[in-house]
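Second attempt. The first submission of NAD-dependent epimerase/dehydratase family protein had a stray character pasted in from the spreadsheet, which I only caught after the job came back as garbage. Lesson logged: always re-copy from the clean sequence file. Corrected sequence (383 aa) follows.
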Amino acid sequence: MRVLVIGGDGYCGWATALHLSNRGHEVGIFDSLVRRHWDAQLCVDTLTPIAPIQTRLQRWKDLTGKEIDLFVGDLNDYPYLEKALLQFQPDAVVHFGEQRSAPFSMIDREHAVLTQANNVIGNLNLLYALRDHFPDCHLVKLGTMGEYGTPNIDIEEGYITIEHNGRKDTLPYPKQPGSFYHLSKVHDSHNIHFACKIWGLRATDLNQGVVYGVLTEETGMDELLINRLDYDGVFGTALNRFCIQAAVGHPLTVYGNGSQTRAFLDIRDTVRCIEIAVSNPANSGEFRVFNQFTEMFSVNDLAKQVQQAGSTLGVKVEVKNLENPRVEAEDHYFNAKNTSLLDLGLEPHYLSDSLLDSLLNFATKYKGRVDQSQILPKVKWRR
Ligand SMILES: NC(=O)c1ccc[n+]([C@@H]2O[C@H](COP(=O)([O-])OP(=O)(O)OC[C@H]3O[C@@H](n4cnc5c(N)ncnc54)[C@H](O)[C@@H]3O)[C@@H](O)[C@H]2O)c1
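This time the job returned cleanly.
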């Protein structure tokens, strides 16, 4: 298939583009490279030294003989988006190309507006471009498990059947997101659902858990293909961040009492889930929702696992509970369904000591690049 990966220079997108290319798909990357610009603005950097996108793609071609087309442009530049789509002629579009940090969206008004304008309008542009030029193309859109919040009932995959006053209906699952970033994803989901209904587009919304790990079969082939690994207080996510903190001897930064429970998956499963979604398209007019994660952990569980993995490597790891900069429930129920991707053939990589060891070893290898002043959270949710 011809698959355009929007956001293909980012953490999930880069690994996915290479994986799909390796599996024989014709792949294109569409990315404005704005994430590299935001890093520079905030004076943060990936732990791993990522090469410029052109160098990455040339190395991939030299190693495998496979060419990945590159479109450097912004989803919010509609004429360029149309031009790129018409040139590439996609059968599927995988959309990772958004501002994806909750703390970034909570810095101030400008960052909240930037996040929602970039994400919601970019996604809306894509929907119109698909409607006008590729109505049969399958949209695979990255959402997040954070869209659901932490309801006191089981989280279903996108829809819930409710009986009310003697009548019954299957409705979109209620969303209670916890940041302006997560809200942008909810708005995207609504827009895509509506576009499927009125124009007959086909879409899969992947509510992805927090991704951890850095190596995939493809990104591990060569140093120039290395993926980004964020550890700073704005873009770094749990577990990746903890491993890097452990490597530099910084106490693990557990927010609040650490009972917050979330859904997680290995980056090797991210790329596989996308491949599964692309190979099994939604029907015309269908807005399909999958919960894309493999396991659930509390923040304390993660901290304990990193401590244990550290001790097997002779690294002493301390844990520090910080005042929670976010507004979120700490002691809560969390039980989410995730059977759709398993039913389609996902064979999960579960979090194990060996993964933690390799992530810790990776973090240790590049620890000289860590700027310790970027570790603690600086963005607060409250006024
Ligand atoms: N990383 C995670 O743990 C995680 C978890 C759940 C969901 N997701 C979702 O997966 C997607 C990718 O996340 P990531 O961690 O790879 O993020 P990332 O920041 O590493 O990558 C996003 C990429 O999109 C590009 N981009 C952003 N806005 C764009 C625009 N308007 N036009 C063109 N390109 C644009 C950026 O330059 C960047 O390369 C996001 O939509 C995110 O919400 C990520």
